[in-house]
Amino acid sequence: MANDTDIFAEAERRQRRLFEQLEAAPISEVVAVVGPNGPGAGRSRGEDLWAMSFTVEAWRVDRGEIQKRPLTICRKVTDEDLKTLQDLILPYEVIRVKARLVVDSAFGTPQALLETFVGCESSDTELNAFAEELQKPVTLDDPLLGTFTLDRRVDWFTGDVVWAGESISLNLSGAADAQDALRTAHALWQNQNEWNRRVRNFAVQELLPLKNDTWLDEDEAELTPDEFEDRMTLESITVNADGSFDFWHNDGDLFWGHSIQISGSLSEGPTHADIPG
Question: 181-193: b or e for each residue (b if 16 or more CB lie within 10 Å)?
């Protein structure tokens, strides 16, 4: 608990330091290519304003050189302002803003505080060409598992594969580490029947008691292990470069629409069961 408190306290200190840096920085005019996600926002309990932020993938200050590294732009906004900015700042648009920019920020990455959204920018040929390039499909071919396409919104490659006779999605987490993630996938596929059995057995072991104890519908009888397993449907597998994995199942209304997530690693097997969502 003490370590958690220290971590949160340090995060708060860094956040305060960042805003001190941003508020002290001069206002610059920035032209930038919006990333694949556009603006997102969060709001703490009791707060009236949203903490909005978005990432740009390439940018320049005034007429300076293009910086091809992420820049996070943030601002505190009302409900109305958030909706307006989300309608204006779209993925892969080239935009012009006025912002307080700190390259060497307390977060260790370029950060900016949005002052004014000026508008979309069509005259910067280099940045518009970069925006077009970002939207071209990037694929990865694997002799065993087929073709994967980069999903820039989550920075992973995804493709359709067959697992235990059923079509599912396979996600290679971390585009830069896709080849290492593929090695995790290959290890799973080489012993597919064994891993399928281990994952499903673990789900039954960990979640059937929860279902029967607290998630039964009115007049619903307790489920047997076979009945529980029959209602699970695997939808996707996410694999990571470090040998870890997540199996995501449709719950067949076992937990009223929550997903069934089984996590683990090649070295330890299934280690964690959850029903997120």
Answer: bbebbeebbeeee
